[in-house]
Specification:
single chain, about 130 residues, alpha/beta, TIM Barrel, three-stranded parallel beta sheet, 5 strands, globular, hydrolase, membrane, cell wall biogenesis/degradation, EC 3.2.1.58, cell membrane
Length: about 130
């Protein structure tokens, strides 16, 4: 995403942009970090300049939330069984929550940020689809 893309979307009549990101923008070396804010701040400023809104979309969550390659699944095979999804294992859910808390603390009063897509296309934990 760059300013020209935002300007082009605005020229086409769009009033919002969905910004997909990987959790690793905010997690490195076992710690929550601020690295992703530089990118987000730039996009938010561009959108403000063009009268647009931003939806922040965690497209890749810790442990990957579905078998697709777009969500940090290192095996990149959408035909894998659901039990290969590791998002529901260990501390991945808690880490995701902590990262979102970190992001929300920064942007909770930012009017250009109109929403958060907490996890893109998660699949249920294997065997728990109907609980």
């Amino acid at each position: 995403v760059d300013e020209k893309a935002i300007a082009d979307l605005n020229d086409l009549g769009f009033n919002s942009v969905r910004v997909p990101f990987n959790y690793k923008l905010f997690y490195s070396g076992g710690q929550i970090v601020d690295d992703g804010f530089e990118f987000f701040d730039r996009v938010i400023e561009w959108c403000r300049n063009y009268g647009m809104y931003v939806l922040l979309d965690m497209h890749g969550a810790p442990g990957y939330q579905n078998p697709g390659d777009h969500c940090d699944n290192v095996d990149s095979n959408a035909n894998q069984p659901r039990d290969t999804v590791k998002f529901w294992d260990g501390d991945n859910v808690q880490l995701t929550s902590s990262i979102w808390r970190h992001i929300a603390l920064r942007y909770h009063n930012e009017p250009v940020v109109w929403g958060y897509d907490l996890i893109n296309e998660p699949v249920p934990q294997a065997g728990r689809e109907f609980e």
